[in-house]
Design brief:
By secondary structure, the chain is mainly alpha-helical. It contains 20 helices and twelve strands. The strands form five sheets. A three-stranded parallel sheet has the order 1-2-3, with helices on one face. It has a three-stranded antiparallel sheet with strand order 4-5-8. Strands 6-7 form a two-stranded antiparallel ribbon. β6 and β7 form a beta hairpin. Catalyzes the attachment of glutamate to tRNA(Glu) in a two-step reaction: glutamate is first activated by ATP to form Glu-AMP and then transferred to the acceptor end of tRNA(Glu). It catalyses: tRNA(Glu) + L-glutamate + ATP = L-glutamyl-tRNA(Glu) + AMP + diphosphate. Pfam families: Anticodon_2, tRNA-synt_1c.
Amino acid sequence: MPQTVVTRFAPSPTGFLHIGGARTALFNWLYARGRGGRFLLRIEDTDRARSTDQATQAILDGMAWLGLDHDGEVISQYERAERHREVALDLLDKGEAYKCFSTQDEIQTFRDTARAEGRSTLFQSPWRDADPATHPDAPYVIRIKAPRDGATVIADRVQGDVTIRNDQLDDMVLLRSDGSPVYMLAVAVDDHDMGVTHVIRGDDHLNNAARQMLIYTAMGWPLPVYAHIPLIHGPDGKKLSKRHGALGVDEYQKMGYPAAGMRNYLARLGWSHGDDEFFTDAQAQEWFDLSGIGKSPARFDFKKLENLCGQHIAASDDAALLHELQGFLAATGQPALSGPRLSLMETGMYCLKERARTFPELLEKAEFILAERPIRPDEKAAAQLDDVSRSILKELTPHLRNARWSREDLEAAAMQFAESIDVKFGKLAGPLRAALAGRSATPSVFDMMLVLGRDETIARLSDAACESG
């Protein structure tokens, strides 16, 4: 029976959910979901000075917005400290670890001497093979016995085999002198206890793998599969930072990017499936594999993000899109859509979502729904409503009032009127947009008429026609 795939995302709650962390979570989610496996969430909150409940909530909110659901309860690393200590003491009993009584001053003296003599400054404790009978009654740390000879090979699914000489590995501290476990121990123990089969994380953790493998080997545990993914860079090829724009996932929600587009873009950021750019969640889960991850850092490109988001908005189910639009309004502190406006948005979503790349762009197109009479045209639209245009609208209105309220009949009535006064329909479109929406960039005038309905359309046209130029 094949082993169930178990992946995990293990952020530190010291701030927002970083866009790089979101991609790591997505890769783990896709890998597990595409194989019928489990995707777990662990909050690495052992740094009590910097970990906050607000940051934990920000991570949970960011993952919820992205639609990255996890299995089981959220694991707190801090709450498992007793189990981490238990493993360190077990390694001590097995002879795979030892008590080290060296003081910080002694360790610094060792390093200073080694540097002066041109030797490795990697600390070699004199207590490694000391007889316990010689142990003083003094504070100590517990260190693991790292191999001194040979090499440790990390069989990485992205980076290939990475070899680290064992003389580059120190006898890592497992328990501090106050009995608290170190991060490296906690991660290895948690990954083993949670049954994690695949550790997919940023390549800034690559060296950590060699040190965590020491614990696995000493405990006789099977190693997980490692896959260390390159970091995300900005368009200039430098590590992604605040100067490149938003770093937190919450900021992307507030900028109005749809979650499906964000997932699609982040999946393509460092991973590929042939030449496919636009794909659904189902396709991503079916296609995602570690072999498709590149070794080079990916570059964040806002234009590509916007392009994909536009495609996802266009392809979205209207009701789902409206629901996410309400979430965007809430996230940005704007009032929710309700009553007649909500109904009109439902009716008009089909013509709003074409060529809108973000929710602010979609709302701009929806201005004809959101505006109230009398419509106040912006400067560009107002230029379309001179005395001649108003006169034409006044003549056109009865033709529309008497037409059947279908696209075909409205188009026919407008075209026939344009012919009767010897103008091209394009000459009517600008004043119609200005009268109906107060904007020059809108959905089709006929779509606006159909969404607004006969009474509201005629009322707006009459308002525009009656105002003096």
